[in-house]
Each structure stands twice: as structure tokens, then as C-alpha cells.
Design goal:
By secondary structure, the protein is an alpha+beta fold. It is built from three helices and six strands; from the N terminus they run E-E-H-E-E-E-E-H-H. The protein has a single domain, classed as Bira Bifunctional Protein, Domain 2 (BirA Bifunctional Protein, domain 2, 2-Layer Sandwich), CATH 3.30.930. The longest helix has 18 residues.
């Protein structure tokens, strides 16, 4: 029903630039804006990043992001980026605060396997890899 994935990014390898540890917030922002770019490409309006790690559509949460960074000597070694996007879910537990899914917004069902590369394309653009 939903799109959930983790991505390991190793800096200074495979053409991915080295980054200072001070870039951690910028990476978090880039991931959130990648999700926003993806949602906008689906025609979704009213998307915004709720600090520190959520994407909302107007007053409803559509995505959560968790990032764990590994740092050595002031440089980022790697980041594990976890994204959970509400894709097709139509009913939510009552204890969740204002959830929504892409399917609820657009009235369309999405194939998570087909949507993942589209979202990763936006992520690659924002993170320059």
C-alpha cells in the first residue's frame, strides 16, 4: 500500500562528492524537497516540509523521513536515508495525526515498484548523483 525504502549513500565514492558533516541539515532538506518534487509531478498542491523530517500536504502528513549519518573527522562518510510515503492507503489508525496518501488525494492507485524509480530520480537530482 505504501512506499517505504532505505537508501545507503556513501560520500566520496562512485562519483558522489565528499561532504562536510555540517551538510547534514542540507541533506535532510534535499530529501524532503525530492519527495515534494515527486508529489508535484503527480499534480499534488499544497506540499511543504514540516521540520525536521516530514512532508505534509496542507494540514495532513503524507511522508516521514529518517536519516542516520556516519561522520568521521568532520566529514560525512555515509547516510542511511529512510523514506515512508503513504501511497495507496485509504484507512489509517485513529491515533495517527492527520494522515493522507497520494491515492486519497488523486483518486488513483499506484504501483510502488513503478513509483520508486520516479522518486529516486528526483532524489538523485537533489543530491547530485
Amino acid at each position: 500500500q505504501n512506499l517505504m525504502f532505505s537508501l545507503l549513500v556513501r560520500y566520496g565514492q562512485n562519483g558522489i562528492q565528499e561532504l562536510s558533516a555540517s551538510c547534514q541539515k542540507s541533506i535532510s532538506d534535499a530529501v524532503a524537497y525530492s519527495v515534494i518534487d515527486y508529489l508535484c509531478s503527480k499534480g499534488v498542491k499544497g506540499t511543504w516540509m514540516k521540520e525536521p523530517n516530514d512532508v505534509w500536504v496542507y494540514d495532513k502528513k503524507i511522508c516521514g523521513i529518517l536519516i542516520e549519518h556516519r561522520v568521521r573527522a568532520g566529514m560525512l562518510l555515509e547516510s542511511i536515508i529512510g523514506v515512508g510515503l503513504n501511497l495507496n492507503q485509504r484507512a489509517f489508525p485513529e491515533d495517527l495525526p492527520n494522515p493522507v496518501s497520494l491515492g486519497l488525494i488523486t483518486g488513483t492507485d499506484y504501483d510502488p515498484a513503478a513509483e520508486l524509480p520516479l522518486l529516486l530520480e528526483h532524489l538523485g537530482r537533489r543530491l547530485s548523483f
